[in-house]
């Protein structure tokens, strides 16, 4: 297990602008480690499908008679994408020439061909954990059985439903995204809403070889909501939902290396996955899941919407952090210098763990 308190320094500024390093990250990390596809709740019913934007819309989860499977969303005829978004259909029909496949990926119609070509969509084997489907090697996923009981107990997807998905474009390096996710030093000072929703004074860290997790408590039992209108409404919704009998945990943030984040808050669990799009760009695909019992409440939809809106408000603020860090690092690069300060022993312990992971995988920074 990687020690979160190893003496490693922060990464050099060049690590966020080096094209050769980015290619190495793609080869040694993203192409070798498990790649998140999607959650089973994206396709809960028979014949449901969901196209995955983080795979260039080239993959789709399909709930067929044989269960949930992952197929290529590229037609075998002229390589057009077949499906868009989410929906429900027994047949997967390409709009270009109406080549049609059944929900096991087998071609069943090719108009005007005298003989039906014996073709089917490429299928990708996945490994599922808590309903999350991954492509690639399973060792890192198997290690998640060692998550602490407190963490696993919050990941109750069986009692959840999928809300909606968003794609956030970010103008900074993907590593920068994970760095501010893995440090709590900025929460109170930068986030007027989140900083009055949770308290990092009793921050607890958990570390494994392939993951890290953080747990924080509520800030003053949600009695001082701060200056965010959205968070003030969310505070009230949470207190109403729990009838003022708040749980001991205000939020939990789990990172599964290299790029999958699962965040638990009252009334919403978020799966977000960040992908590099260049040294100065990344994309974050955000999936919102809500407790199933909200469906039974007349105010349930409003509560779910408030939780998602509060999350988005903090995500926008985090985006500002990322852009300012990127701007500062670019200024240092332009001056051909590199600067970095010390890690805070507890509040930035996750950054130490992440940087050590990168060094172990890349052997070059």
TrEMBL record:
InterPro entries membership: Rieske_2Fe-2S, Rieske_2Fe-2S_sf, Ring_hydroxy_dOase_asu_C_dom, Rng_hydr_dOase-A
A single MF term (Gene Ontology): 2 iron, 2 sulfur cluster binding
Every Rieske domain range: 34-130
Recorded superkingdom: Bacteria
Cofactor(s) needed: Fe cation
PROSITE patterns in alphabetical order: RIESKE
First and last residue of the signal peptide: none
Pfam families noted in UniProt: Rieske (PF00355), Ring_hydroxyl_A (PF00848)
Keywords of this entry: 2Fe-2S, Iron, Iron-sulfur, Metal-binding, Oxidoreductase
Family statement: Belongs to the bacterial ring-hydroxylating dioxygenase alpha subunit family.
Protein name as annotated: Rieske (2Fe-2S) iron-sulfur domain
